[in-house]
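Quick one, T. Sequence first:
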Amino acid sequence: MPHARSATVTSMAPSGSLKLSVHGDTRQDRRVRFAEITVRPDDGEEVRLVTDAGGRLRYRLPSGEYELRLANGSEAHCTIRREGWTSVHLQLP
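Structure tokens:
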């Protein structure tokens, strides 16, 4: 009987997911379209992301504490957990 070969799989750091939505004054507020978001972990380098035309963004991140900042200065803090999506809603001033 042939011997089965075993394979070693290296895993990446546990990751979670960020689901972000930006809201304007009205439903037709164009500022939410392609809004620039800066995501900065407490102990790392920042990442710049852009929302879609509806003001939404989904992105995989390692678990941890993050500061989110819109180009206009709005800020939020969130904790990304290993399981599931972390939803964050930002309101434009």
